[in-house]
Design brief:
The chain has about 500 residues and is an alpha/beta fold. The protein contains 16 helices and 21 strands. It has a seven-stranded mixed sheet with strand order 15-16-14-13-19-20-21. It has a six-stranded mixed sheet with strand order 3-2-1-5-12-11, with helices on both faces. The chain has a two-stranded antiparallel ribbon with strand order 4-7. The longest helix has 27 residues. The radius of gyration is 22 Å and the shape is globular. It starts with a strand and ends in a 5-residue tail after the last helix. The relative contact order is 0.13.
């Protein structure tokens, strides 16, 4: 009898394969990074074939390292970077262009054009999303309009679109039984799906000039889609798919309305479970599908997306060379008592929630000759915490509720200085779970539910336990002063790009 569940975690910078036991403990893990491609300012691409190769590698490595056979896995779940857009040839499986990453801003002119009639919220009632460079729909349109011959191929049904989950499943189920599907969480990030019907919206497809035949079938987040054909996992059911942030929500066991988590990764993503009814945001958040398990009703979430969080630490390392590796930032920031009056607004690809300003650009404000690299390092960390507070405030207004404490996960939660400042600036406790790899765990949970490896969400909730809790200890005056100057710095980033 299979004792484990596998999870593919295909992220913005790397691919991982993790194997979990019934208690959610990690049995095996392998990870490989892939190249970030920047053809022009504001353009961000990945090579889909490289991603598939890296994914294949980590699956084989993790299975081999732990001495596992396909029969040891009950199922495999997938979680993926969302909105990143791949188009490939139906017959050869070869991508026709590099993937356009969620951070890519080249469709900014299209956002402006479509916003002229009906404004930025033109499609919000149906899709839960504002018009923005972030989402997949306009990226597909750009590819169809700019890759020679692609629109004709699309009309003829010769090419397929997918977010990364679809592309991986297409390759994992290779041979004659290839499956072209996506789940409701990823479909809800395309700006092409009706949130209520959970189907592609014909009206938006027509306005975006996207032929319906290129789109994958929309499935639930937890069901058997097909079986893997690669040797290391041959015959194992692919049975769960969740976009990365929804997967973290599931991995954090946020199954009750009002429960919220924040993931600190390349960007920052705060989701609050709102139950079986979508709540339309009036405060700059997006409405998204949280998950849909099998034939159960879909569960929805409010989400605040921040484009740059951990990526700012990488920028400090790679572009400025102020640190040798990402983990050094905490020690450097601790050499000073405060930010020295410096505020760093990382609007490298515009501002996402709650502003949605594509023409904003990054600024460092408050520089004096007193400031040194340690103050810059501290400002880099604080930028993430300030952005999270803005999202939390918007979420509380939209939901008319409260967040008693914030569940946190992602690569940055090992940074004690950041987590303490996050608690201080929120005036709320921040709690890190014992299993920090919540994104992969959520995908494993979805797959396990589909094949009966896990009984129900009550069993999953029983697995969640706190590892570390940070309590706020900043006085209100200091908190208000810091936040005031952050808001002032944010306004300086507005309308920079013309």
């Amino acid at each position: 009898m299979a004792q484990y569940i596998g999870a593919i975690d295909q992220g913005t910078t790397s691919s991982r394969f993790m194997v979990f036991d019934r208690d959610g403990k990690i049995v095996s893990c392998a990870q490989e990074e892939h190249q970030q491609i920047y053809p022009k300012p504001g353009w961000v691409e990945h090579d889909p074939e490289e991603i598939w190769q890296r994914t294949s590698n980590v699956i084989a490595t993790a299975m081999q390292t732990a001495g596992l056979r396909p029969a040891d896995l009950a199922a495999i779940g997938i979680t993926n970077q969302r909105e990143t857009t791949v188009v490939w040839d139906r017959n050869t499986g070869k991508p026709v262009h590099n993937a356009m990453v969620w951070q890519d801003t080249r469709v900014a002119a299209d956002v402006s054009e479509f916003s002229k009639s009906g404004g930025q919220d033109r499609y919000r009632a149906k899709t839960g999303l504002p018009l923005a460079t972030y989402f997949s729909g306009l990226k597909i349109r750009w590819l169809l309009n700019n890759v020679p011959g692609l629109r004709a191929q699309a009309e003829a049904g010769e090419i397929l679109f997918g977010t990364i989950d679809s592309f991986l499943i297409w390759n994992l189920t290779g041979g004659t039984g290839r499956v072209h599907i996506t789940d409701v969480t990823n479909a809800s990030r395309t700006q092409l799906m009706d949130l209520t019907s959970l189907q592609w919206d014909e009206g938006i497809l027509k306005e975006f000039e996207i032929p319906v035949q290129v789109l994958p079938k929309i499935a639930s987040s937890s069901e058997v889609y097909g079986n893997a054909t690669m040797d290391a996992i041959r015959g194992v059911p692919i049975a769960g798919v969740l976009g990365d942030q929804q997967a973290a929500l599931v991995g954090q066991a946020c199954f009750k309305s009002g429960q919220a988590k924040n993931t600190y990764g390349t960007g920052c993503f705060l989701l609050m479970n709102t139950g079986n009814t979508p709540i339309s945001s009036k405060c700059g958040l997006v409405t998204t599908v949280a998950y849909k398990f099998g034939k159960e009703a879909a569960c929805y979430a409010l989400e605040g997306s921040v484009a740059i969080a951990g990526a700012l630490v990488q920028w400090l390392r790679d572009n400025l060379g102020l640190i040798g590796n990402s983990s050094e930032i905490e020690d450097l920031a601790r050499t000073v008592a405060d930010n020295g009056g410096v505020y760093f607004v990382p609007a490298f690809s515009g501002l996402y929630a709650p502003y949605w300003k594509a023409n904003a650009r990054g600024v460092i404000a408050g520089l004096t000759r007193y400031v040194n690299k340690a103050h810059i390092a501290r400002a880099v960390l604080e930028a993430t915490a300030f952005q999270v507070r803005e999202v939390v405030e918007a979420m509380i207004k939209d939901s008319s509720g409260s967040i008693d404490f914030l569940r946190v996960d992602g690569g940055m939660v090992v940074n004690d200085l950041l987590m303490q400042f996050q608690s201080d600036i929120l005036a709320r406790p921040v709690v890190r779970p014992k299993v920090a790899e919540t994104t992969a765990l959520g995908a494993a949970y979805a797959a396990g539910l589909a094949v009966g490896f896990f009984k129900n969400t009550d069993e999953l909730s029983a697995h969640w336990a706190a590892d570390r809790r940070w309590e706020p200890n900043m006085d209100p005056q200091s908190r208000d002063r810091l936040y005031h100057f952050w808001k002032k710095a944010v306004t300086r980033s507005f309308d920079w790009a013309e």
